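Researcher: Here's a chain I'd like modeled. Treat it as a single chain, no partners, no ligands.
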Amino acid sequence: MTTQLITKGTTQILFIALIAVCCGAVLAPAHAQDQAQPQKRQLQYRVSDLDSLGGTSSGGNSINDLNWVAGYSRLTDNQSRHAALWRNGVLSDLGTLGGPNSSVTWNVKNIRGIIVGISQTATPEPRGEAWSSSAFYGAPNNVGYINLGFIWEHGQMRGLPNFPGGNNGFATGANNLRQVVGWAENGVEDGACVSPQVFQFRPAMWRLGPPDQIHDLPLIPGDTSGAATAINDFGQVVGISGICDQAIGRHTARHAVLWENGGVTDIGNLGAQWWNTPTAINQRGDVVGFAGDPSFVEGDILHAFIWTRHDGIQPLLPLPGRVPEHVDSEAYGINELRQVVGVSCDANFVDCRAVVWDHGAVPTDLNDLKAPGYSARLENAKDINDWGEITGRAIDANGVRTAYLAVPTHGH
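Model: Modeled as a single isolated chain. Structure tokens:
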């Protein structure tokens, strides 16, 4: 079943979304004009750390227009991490589906109280697969358990169904129409899978119930596996299409794609047939993400991009003038004003910095815009809401990584 816009009971939400798009269209030029004035230099961000669950690593990966930040935090023993939600600065441990780890890994954006992510169950992985989610947990317990995409609402976490025969799933985004996207295994053993991966997986859309129902999204002809990474309130979905490979990027991300009106469209690349991964889509249908480099099949160096229907795919550059030189850039979030956030790094990923692309291909280091008094380095920026508030991960002089919230203000 292909992507469809489900309209029953959604008139109000779509009306709000239309207002957002229309207002965005009006505000964006005004915003851009305003940013061209001298006061742009006075823009600052008041940065604050968000509480942790006791460990030395946490990160914010999603922020919606209700100022809900979602992500993860390691527990006190630093042996596992749990999906975390910060509402008005108050931290909630979202728990797990029985296993040691869970996480919110992508931009959820829902404003109706729904959070989605991934969680280990208590069930051992029967085929020894590492699955995609292993890259988002960290040692020592990142493998060995079946993983499911989860939905959290009304204070409860529940697992989402996979395709028949598949063991593992992964949920990434949720719109306000109770549609969730991600990917899930289908139980088909595929020779293009790289061990320990065994089964194909397909881009998935879940229509939340009860009961929760899973449907697949079409792949580019000739492809066999893929994943959906984000969805907006018009039912537009972005993600990847390719082969099974290692279930983490690379050749599974042969094509960066957009699903709409029941079809799938390849939105292009920046010269490589790997790691072409959309990460976010706004209500306008603007898409951001990262694309592979022809010289780095393993994804050592990536390049941020923005895709619009008018201009197609365009690169977003790393920070200029850095020593050592920055060569890697990745875009993770976009709002209705087309402000884009992400990261810029040197080739060895020693000097990584949270950045903002504000209507241009050249970014600004978010660290240069911090209000006085915050000393940690903003290491990445994972999402931005329509108020311009940003979340991500900071690192202090002791190597402790902390989720942060950056709120725009105007300095003097």
